[in-house]
Amino acid sequence: MLQMFTSLEFLRETTAAWRAAGARIALVPTMGALHAGHLALVKHAQQLADRVIVSIFVNPTQFGPNEDFASYPRTEKDDIAALTQLGVDALWLPNREAMYPPGFATNIRVSGITERYEGAIRPGHFDGVATVVAKLFAQTQPHTAIFGEKDYQQLCLIKRLVSDLDMDISIIGMPTLREADGLALSSRNRFLSDAQRAIAPLLHQQLQWSQQQIGQGHAITPALNTARNALLQNGFHGVDYVAYVDAETLAPRETYAANGRLLAAARLGSTRLIDNIAVE
Ligand code: AMP
């Protein structure tokens, strides 16, 4: 049965009892508006652990002043139904005051990994992510936590955070779940018009094309430029970046080396899409 918690005190009481009974606990942090990608993380968590906690918190501190915090989709009823159906044990639903009570003054910044790409386009975003995830870890004290590769830079940041702060939590990254046409599932896809939705899969297609070019030994920078131009010429309104990076450090690369990743972000109207794929 899904137990819902809005009070940290009750959440802690319950999870302490689980730990005392020797249960292994997994956390799946989300901002709600759950789709099949989120649910795949939850199902994997259920395989890894005896008890699964899903958190839903639309974290204001990871949104910039001109971003979509107010309009971010909130579908709590449907989310609860989906988690109930999956047999999730606990839903942690902190409100803003529980997360950031008056006087809250701590900021966690993971440098290096966060400085380019999403971090450069969205100043402060990753400080918000690092701080809230550290809090979610402290609140739920999981043995393991599951994140999607969809937010690849975020996943790298969380691994760094946990390692740097000696948190005894195993971080698992799960492959991106996609629509049949390749578009990565995202809570924001619902904002795409039909015309934009038809264009959206091009982001993944251009990553695949770039992956092939790099695999065949073509020069990196021209390939990335061609991909960027293809997006702009076929209906994307802006391209924030198309980058080929080291899969661990996220340092940009100009020549091929093992263990690489392609990262991209582009805009369709007011909706921003991000995606990434491995280059092995
Ligand atoms: P969000 O609610 O967007 O913050 O995402 C919560 C978690 O779900 C994050 O770890 C995301 O990386 C992950 N996630 C989002 N979309 C997908 C997807 N299409 N496939 C797999 N995981 C995803």
Describe what this molecule looks like in 3D:
With 280 residues, the protein is of the alpha/beta class. 39% of the residues lie in helices and 20% in strands. Helix 6 crosses helix 7 and helix 9 packs antiparallel against helix 10. The strands form 2 sheets. Strands 1-4-3-2-5-6 form a 6-stranded parallel β-sheet, with helices on both faces. Adenosine monophosphate binds next to helix 2 and strand 5. The site of adenosine monophosphate (AMP) has 17 residues, from helix 2 and strand 5.
What share of residues is helical? 25-40%
Overall geometry comes to: globular
Determine the structural class based on helices, strands and strand pairing: alpha/beta
Number of strands: 9
Give the ligands present.
adenosine monophosphate
How many strands, which pairing sense, and closed or not: the largest β-sheet?
6 strands, parallel
What Rg is obtained from the alpha carbons, in whole angstroms? 19 Å
The parts where pLDDT drops under 50 for at least 5 residues are none
Give keywords.
10 helices, 39% helix, alpha/beta, six-stranded parallel β-sheet, single chain
Question: TL;DR?
Answer:
The chain has 280 residues and is an alpha/beta fold.
Task: Write the topology of this structure.
Blueprint: E1 3-5, H1 8-20, E2 25-30, H2 36-48, E3 51-56, H3 76-86, E4 90-92, H4 96-99, H5 118-121, H6 125-140, E5 144-148, H7 152-164, E6 170-174, H8 194-199, H9 202-215, H10 220-233, E7 238-246, E8 260-268, E9 271-279
Parallel strand pairs: 1-4, 2-3, 2-5, 3-4, 5-6
Antiparallel strand pairs: 7-8, 8-9
Helix pairs in contact: 6-7, 9-10
Bound molecules: adenosine monophosphate.
Adenosine monophosphate binds next to helix 2 and strand 5.
